[in-house]
Amino acid sequence: MYIDLSNAKTTISQALTDQAETYRKQLFSGTMENTGWVDLPWNMAGDILDRIQQTADEIAGKCRLFIVVGIGGSYLGARAVIDALNGDQPGRPHVMFAGYNMTGAHLDKVVEAMKEQATCLCVISKSGSTLEPLLAYSILKEEMFAKYGEKEAKKRIYVITGLQDNPLRQDIEKYGFSSYYIPENIGGRFSVLSIVGLLPIAVAGFNIRQLLQGAASLSMEHIVDYACTRILLQQGGKDIEVFTYFSTNLRFFGEWLKQLVGETEGKDGKGVFPACLCFSRDLHAVGQFLQQGHQIFYETMIQYKRAQADFVIPDCVGEPFAGKMLEQINRCSEAGVVKAHSEGGIPVIVVNVEQVDEYNIGQLIYFFELSEAISAMLLGVNPFDQPGVENYKMNTKRLVESL
Ligand code: PA5
Q1: DSSP structure string for 24-78
Q2: Quick check: CB of 227 below 6 Å from ligand 1?
Q3: What is this structure's pTM?
């Protein structure tokens, strides 16, 4: 993996680099709260990984549909990886996500899918009390009990939650559901390389060992440069970071990034607003704005060298496209966009990986987690809380109480 800052339109001072490097070391010092995630690429390897794989294979052996209930960091990481790697794998269950909304029509689809297929249910919530997943879980648990009877349903429900007392923990004790715990020092949006992301990813049939190996192999050199560049661009008046990619498979990776950035640095009146755009589709939606509209953003483009699948363009298309590979043309469009955007005045940062596979996705995850935490520290905000989200939760609860 490498990053190209040649179109970023910034010059990083030694003082800023030194500051960022100090923060990077602080993250790894073992003395900072909520940094349990920095060691996951190494700590998860070994026995714990074997246990997760065993549970995943056991789940895959007894269902065709694996419903994962969670929201925010308890959902987006797994979804991002599964989508990036092409979703359904032969012989493995379809992983369906729920509990990230309170839309009856969506839950209805999940319940309908459950009726037709052998199902296992997994709820993931560190606090165990987040409204959206708790409501979906309670409804789906009832459906599981109705479909299988309590004795069999109990063997098909998995709970991943924090150690503190909460409604999910009470259910683990009451029903004896299989469970894993989320360590206190790992927050939601930094948890994809923990049990939170690894179990669903392994159930879907992807190689979680390679995911961790990719993360562990990340070279630290670019992390600090990226964090410093982001801060300089923000200081230069860029209020929006647009994450772009030329693969629809990276759509949910963009959603994961949006949450990582939004909740980590958007506080105390600081931070960029994160947006994600999937090209070519969005070039035909907001490409015009990017090129010539209000220049309040910079772009971080994720590129890959080798495509997951490819096609030869048939002769009937004519010159200059006939006989070329589809992804070759996609790469030309990518290079054309970088050039056009850069010439149009948009600072463009390119993050490039060999290909979209477990190893490289692991690197990308860890790269963005570390650089985002350092960025927040450079901004002078706590990377690991989300007090604004708590406010909306309390308001909702109060309004429900008054119904
Ligand atoms: O990053 C975070 O900490 C949040 O986005 C949480 O993941 C999200 O609010 C869900 O919380 P919980 O896992 O407690 O249900």
Answers
A1: HHHHTSS-STT-GGGGHHHHTTTHHHHHHHHHHHHHHHH-SEEEEE--GGGTHHH
A2: no
A3: 0.97
